[in-house]
Each structure stands twice: as C-alpha cells, then as structure tokens.
Amino acid sequence: MRTAFAAAAVALLSATAAACGDAGQLQSAGPTQTADSPAKLWPDLRPASSPAYPYDVATRETVKGLTVPSGDIRRIDPVDIVEAELKAHPADYGSKGAFHGTVDRVKDCRAGGDRALCPLLKPYYRDLTGDGRPDLTLGFRLYPTNQTAVRVYTVEGRHLVQVLADNDAILGVELAGRALIERNPADISGYEYRTTWEWDPGQRAMVFSRDEYLHTGTGHRIHRASPSARPSASPAASPGAS
C-alpha cells in the first residue's frame, strides 16, 4: 500500500509540474526574419544641386509699433498684436486681401464688442525658446476662409519678435516641450496631417522639423489648402512626409 501511495503521489506531482511548466514556458513565434541592411539605390545618380521648390522652414519678424519695456510678454494685449499684424500686411487683410473679413471681426475683441464674433482665440504662455521666460502662442481665425493663423512671439530686449507664422485649416494645436504641433485635415479619408515646429537657437525661430500623415481610422475626404509659412507668402508645396 505504501508503494502504491508513493507511486500515485509521484504521478500527481509530475502532472502538476507539467501543467505549471506549460503555463509559464516561452513558446516559439516561428523563424525570425533576416535583417537586411539598407540598400542604396542608383548609386551613380547625379546629386541635385538645388531644391526642387522653395519652402520656408522658419519665419522671423519684429513686430512694428509695439515695445515691451518690462520684458514681460504677458503685459502686451493680444488684440494689439493682432491689430499690428493687420496693419503691417495690407495685402492680406485689406479690402481685396484673402483675409479681409478678419479686420471687422477684430473690432469685436475690444470692450463693448460682441465677443462671439471676435476671431482671437485664447492665448497661451509657455517658454518655447529656452530663455526661462514665457513666450506667447496666439491664434486667430482668418475670415472669410476656414483657416486659422498660428503665431508664436518672444521678447528680445524691448522688441516683440514673431518667431512662427503659419496659416492653415486646423484640427488642433499642441505644445510639447519646446515644440508646437499642428493637426490638420488631410486630403485622404481616415488620415490627418501633422506638422511639428521646434525652436532653433541658430535661426532664433520656430523651424519646420517634420510632417507626417497619421491614420486616424475615421474621417471624410477634405480639401486642404496648402499652408503658407507667412501671411503674404504664396502657398508652398509640402516637402513630403518624414
């Protein structure tokens, strides 16, 4: 009886160990694909000596008519900044300009105006240049189009300097570290187009760093106007997804 009991115990322990081992052991996922090094195509192709099209990777402009004596950008009225741009770019905001409807709407941003008609969006303050002081990210609608102006301003001495200017149809804007990310409607259903601008201390501006089409899974085909890096610039072709 002792022999039979011991044999049964051994069999039970063996079965239990096997069951536990099956649950925790690694299993093969099949053969691993062999890694291939990048293949350089057309090694004899003559390299291009100039770009195929112009593209402004950065814009920088000192705002005329406004000074910052205290160096605190928060003390400047955002409405004053928008009005300074309207005045500086009559080709865009004049009676025959593409964004002429913005001029009358800005008047409603002042006291006594209809705030529902004001094109100015909520301003955001964050250090994007790395100098320890807040910079201003500003947005305002460009009527009568469906585009939105996205601007970033910093202070240098007593001067207010615009270090990013982009007009586009906007789904959303995000700040991540010292980068600004724009989300735009793509012309492909189920995708959106994202552009990232980052602070470049060499150019002292927010420079275009990458763009990409991202799959969102849903959406409709939307005609997306080509962005212009500065208000009066003609639309430029995208440099392609990176």
UniProtKB/TrEMBL annotation:
Ordered alphabetically, the record's keywords are: Lipoprotein, Signal
Q: Where is this region: Disordered?
A: 24-47, 220-242
Q: Tell whether Hydrolase is among the UniProt keywords.
A: no
Report biased composition (Polar residues) as residue ranges. Answer: 25-36
Q: Compositionally biased, Low complexity: which spans?
A: 225-242
Keyword Amino-acid biosynthesis attributed:
no
Which residues constitute the signal peptide according to the record? Answer: 1-19
Protein name per the record: Lipoprotein
